[in-house]
Automatic annotation (TrEMBL):
GO molecular-function terms, A-Z: maltose binding
Keywords: Signal, Transport
Secretion signal, residue range per the UniProt entry: 1-23
Region of interest (Disordered), ranges: 26-67
Protein name as it appears in the record: ABC transporter substrate-binding protein
GO BP terms, alphabetized: maltodextrin transmembrane transport; maltose transport
Protein family: Belongs to the bacterial solute-binding protein 1 family.
Family matches, as InterPro entries: SBP
Biased composition (Low complexity): 35-56
Length: 444
């Protein structure tokens, strides 16, 4: 009896142990893998295939805003292609691109003041000094790494977005200089074998090419944006160290007088309005000017609107033995108030880096501000664009400190008057300088 009872007790205890073991396994199913003693490489395949509850969920990409002005549909498509390539390589960043069609700078300034500015936006070199001075732009030097290769940029272009103390506030996305566009048939008919290389040769060619008032040897643009390099040709300056107007000096006037004399004395130049044209490219395309000084923007315009026109380009003629031209450039800059600076720099560094810039400038709508990209795309040896690229290393950027808007308005008003022969150049420049400095003082 005792033996039978003992055997029964053993069986009961054994069954209880089996139930306890099964209950323990079921209890572990509700625990995290890190808490479960069964969580090991020997776990069933069906359980190991399931995602661990402790793994972090994928983060949403950081959205940044990019603002710029409008362009042609072809350029907009090219920019979108560049942005798509950036986002494919940087899935952690989403770019919201916004076109500001009208009053671009007014809109940007208003939004910045109101704390609603974009993270990244276009900045023309003309506006850069004033915007840097206002303190709304983020200095970029601390973000730059060695592989960004600042030395690859054309020096005058990258310097256009530096503060007086040398800090960089933007990097140029593209540019254009001015080159001499000339009508090949008119040159051949006049017996001119090669484009003029000096100002003296240029004046001589203009005389041979002028035909009463039906064809001007040169189609001029009598405005400061095209004449600043002429001020520098004999050592003149547009402004002093305090950004007051300083262009009414004998040195500055000596260069500007060459432009006036060609019109008033030689009578071999005219402005577009003299020929019923809206700008130099149209005047040239219509055959009303044998030579004009224009930028890269004129090439697609002439090819589209005057496909039969035979023309070529050359560097601008030297003045006083010096090479000179103007440069027009735009940078990507960062809003100092942006809360997404790391992502914003990723975008800027890609768009102004070698890869992004190659895509953006691949169609020739704009020229790359990086020397290596220009060489890779062949623009430095291009029959039409080579002269524009060559001028980048010695060009004068369209920029002259925060007072340039005031100076430009007064200069243009008086210079056009002198160009038309209504007053002497020295008197016109004295008036423009005096008026500019009064307005600058009043604005302080």
């Amino acid at each position: 009896m005792k033996k039978r009872l003992s055997l029964s007790l053993v069986l009961v205890l054994a069954f209880a142990l089996i139930l306890t073991a099964c209950g323990g396994n079921n209890g572990n199913k509700g625990k995290k893998a890190s808490e479960s003693p069964a969580a090991s490489s020997s776990a069933p395949a069906t359980e190991s295939a399931s995602p661990s509850p402790s793994a972090e969920a994928p983060k949403d990409p950081v959205e940044i805003t990019l603002s710029g002005w409008g362009a042609s549909p072809e350029e907009q498509a090219l920019l979108q292609q560049t942005l798509d390539e950036f986002q494919a390589k940087n899935p952690d960043v989403k770019v919201k691109y916004e076109v500001i069609a009208d009053q671009y700078m007014d809109v940007i300034k208003t939004r910045l003041v109101g704390g609603e500015g974009p993270d990244v936006f276009y900045m023309d070199a003309f506006e850069a000094p004033k915007m840097i001075e206002s303190g709304v732009l983020e200095p970029l030097d601390s973000y730059v790494t060695d592989d960004f290769d600042i030395a690859d940029f054309e020096e005058p272009l990258v310097n256009a977005f530096k503060s007086p103390d040398g800090k960089s506030y933007g990097f140029p996305k593209d540019f254009s200089t001015l080159a001499m566009f000339y009508n090949k048939k008119m040159f051949a008919d006049a017996g001119i074998a090669a484009p003029p290389a000096t100002w003296e040769e240029f004046l001589d060619a203009a005389k041979k090419l002028t035909k009463d008032k039906t064809v001007y040897g040169f189609g001029a643009a009598p405005e400061l944006a095209r004449q600043m390099y002429m001020i520098k040709a004999f050592g003149g300056k547009l402004t002093d160290e305090n950004y007051n107007a300083a262009f009414a000096t004998p040195e500055a006037i000596q260069g500007l007088q060459l432009v006036i004399d060609q019109r008033v004395v030689d009578k071999t130049s005219g402005q577009p309005s003299d020929a019923g044209a809206g700008w130099g490219g149209e005047m040239f395309g219509q055959g009303k000017a044998a030579m004009v000084f224009e930028g890269n923007w004129a090439i697609p315009y002439l090819n589209a609107n005057f496909p039969e026109l035979e023309y070529a380009t050359a560097e601008l003629p030297t003045v006083n033995g010096q090479k000179g031209t103007m440069a027009f450039t735009v940078a990507y800059v960062m809003n100092k108030a942006s809360e997404k600076k790391e992502a914003s720099w990723k975008l800027i560094s890609y768009l102004t880096g070698k890869e992004g810039m190659k895509t953006w400038t691949s169609k020739g709508f704009a020229l790359p501000s990086r020397k290596s990209v220009s060489a890779e795309l062949g623009y430095d040896k291009d029959p039409l664009r080579g002269a524009l690229v060559a001028g980048a290393s010695y060009a004068t950027p369209w920029q002259a400190g925060p007072t340039l808007p005031i100076i430009s308005t007064n200069f243009n008003n008086q210079f056009v008057s002198a160009y038309l022969g209504d007053q002497k150049l020295d008197a016109a420049m004295a008036t423009a300088q005096e008026t500019s400095n009064k307005e600058i003082k009043a604005a302080k």
